[in-house]
Amino acid sequence: MSIKKWLIILPMMLGSISAMAMVGEVAGDTTCSTVSLINKKLLKQTPCSFAGAVGASLVYSVQQLDFLTDSHEDFSTVNNATFRFGDNGEMFDLEETITLNDKPAEVIKLDSRTLKRLKQAEMDRIYKRKNPDFSNVLHCFKPIKNSTAFCVPYGLIYGMS
Predict the structure, then answer these.
(1) Helix boundaries (H) for the chain
(2) CA–CA gap between residue 83 and residue 63 (Å, rounded)
(3) Is residue 115 within 8 Å of residue 129, measured between CB atoms?
């Protein structure tokens, strides 16, 4: 490779971490659900549209999505994180901000057939498959101290990452 090409490529390779960030706008249609976690019952399921921003770098990830149901209910979700990686690839200093309608929340995964919470080991098994199938997984925002959750298909979220 010529010196001229190296002089062009090297600064790009040495660029700052934030310069390697990618954030993009997303929009589309999906299905929104509200689930009772106590009774394991689907309270409401309706078509909805969404718009927002999704992105990441080597030190943060950002996901801010606004959902509007056909019944004109608004759900605003935020799932932002900052972190750093150690020499062996392990993650350190994870700080997350997760909200649903500006109230603190946590993200959980549910089996859409049983509405039971999926453990990380179960999600890891799905990820390890040659062609992961997330059609039966719901990505849910559960407000802290609340027994209901707002959910969308996990395939939608997975496809944005």
Answers:
(1) 3-13, 120-128, 154-160
(2) 15
(3) no
pLDDT of the chain, 161 residues: tens digit per residue: 444 333 344 344 444 444 456 888 999 999 999 999 999 999 999 999 999 999 888 788 889 999 999 999 999 999 988 887 778 877 777 788 999 999 999 999 999 999 999 998 889 888 888 888 889 999 999 999 899 999 999 999 988 87
3-state SS track over 79-112: EEEEEEECCCCCEEEEEEEEEECCEEEEEEEEEC
Cα end-to-end span (Å), the chain: 34
CA distance 93 to 83: 5
Q: How far apart are CA 114 and CA 151, in angstroms?
A: 14
